[in-house]
Amino acid sequence: METKKDTIAIPNNSKFDAHSPIPLYHQVYTFIRQLILDENYASGNLLPPEIALAKNLNVSRHTIRQAMSLLVSEGLIERFSGKGTFISKKNPRNQFFLDKSFSQQMADLGMQTHAKVLELSHGKINKTTSVFFHKKLGVPYLKLTRLRFGDQDPIGLQTALVITENCPDLGKHDFSHQSLFHLLTTEYKLEISEIFHTVNAVLASEYQADLLQVEVGAPLLYEKSVTFLSDGEPIETTTSYFSAEKYEYSVHFQYTSSKSIWQSF
What we know:
This protein is an alpha+beta fold. Helix content is about 20%, strand content about 35%.
């Protein structure tokens, strides 16, 4: 990797909140990540040492080290022993993170999001619907299929099945511009506790290829999620398809020894 000798400056124009539920290192990571994605720095630029970054951003060196580890795992920076930390070559694929909604993903990528609603229908849970809902036979649901856009480009094809016993008028909303997750958690005050994700690879059908503007048989990322409320009851499942040539999924886990579990951020 050919590097440049000049060290870039990281501006101290972000206020980090130590009392936020978002870990401090994750705030720093998000801040530096956005600077890199905004292409303020070129591939091969040298980042300041951890001590200098910590002083400039008014955080501990340990916080900087955790943030840097996330950026390394994401492939945005590279570390070389005895040389320093450098901006990586630009990844031609955009990255999706399993802990963020589609709307937040697009905002992080600097894109305006909207959707084309392909189906909005109501029904009742039966044995042919998701296995996660089999304890809710006869309960009403809303089915929502959307083609999601980032700016003017089709990004994903998503179908959500939502239990509506706690949000019976959910279908009245304009899903071409409104976030489903935001509505559930803000307007209907539903407390989300867990989201399970499964990611796989599939080939684009003629229908999917036409909507996502890819070739028939092109590789797609297939992602399925199941959302649970704080009482342990499932509220929603979503299946999503993205072009694997343009997008990739990333997830970061942190081990919490006090609970002996892996936590995802």
